Amino acid sequence: MIRTPLPVVSCDDCGACCTEQAALPTSLVGTAFRMPGVGPLPVELRAELLAAVERFRRDGWPADGTPCIWYDAAAKRCRHYEYRPTLCRDEVVPGDEACRRWRRLKGVGPRPPRYAMRNGRVVKV
Ligand code: SF4
Ligand code: SF4
Predict the structure, then answer these.
(1) Closest ligand 1 atom to Cα of 15
(2) Which phi-psi region, left, alpha or beta, contains residue 101 (left: φ > 0; alpha: ψ -120 to 50)?
(3) pLDDT tier, 1 (very low <50, low <70, confident <90, very high otherwise)
(4) N or C: which end of the chain has fewer CB within 10 A?
(5) Contact in structure between 15 and 79 (CB atoms under 8 Å)
(6) Whose CA is nearest to atom 6 of ligand 1?
């Protein structure tokens, strides 16, 4: 029987594509805190991003390959998903090829069964 993986319809309990995006939401600073279809950021998020930019200018920007500053690693989700940048919306859509690639890379979701020979028999490992 061929098993087809269930489609990915939600980012809940994943965040795979957020784990290497460095300081991504600070790009919102350059767009005056406004994105088409999203509207202006709440005041506290503006303040948080401005503070982050100031901190990075002072201490250095996060290295490539580090988690996005909005990624909550414990909850495995974006802390401000409804305000995520356009890049996050356009480049990786739940269930598309980029999403599946990130999930494979980070080991999210069910893995295909693996088999091995043991004592002359094929067994699931
Ligand atoms: S890898 Fe896919 S499911 Fe996971 S957070 Fe990114 S878009 Fe959402
Ligand atoms: S802004 Fe949110 S969705 Fe985008 S990379 Fe950061 S944590 Fe992920």
Answers:
(1) 5
(2) alpha
(3) low
(4) N
(5) no
(6) 17
**Closest atom of ligand 2 relative to the 11 alpha carbon:** 3
The encoded tokens of residue 22 equal 């460095």
Ranking 24-28, 35-39, 65-69, 115-119 by mean pLDDT, the lowest is 35-39
* Token pair for 42: 């709440």
Tokens matching residue 69: 């500053």
What's the pTM? 0.77
Instruction: Report the b/e string of 62-100 with b at 16+ CB within 10 A.
Output: beeeebbbbbeeeebbbbbeebbbeebeeebeeeeeebb
Angle 119-121-125 from CA coordinates, rounded to 5°: 95
Residue with the smallest CA separation from ligand 2 atom 5 is 18
Supply 15's token pair: 């965040």
Placement of tokens 């909005």 in the chain:
70
pLDDT at 2 over 70: no
- Average pLDDT rounded to a whole number, residues 40-56: 86
Instruction: Check pocket membership of 16 for ligand 1, CB cut-off 6 A.
Output: yes
**Beta carbon of 71 within 6 Å of any ligand 2 atom:** yes
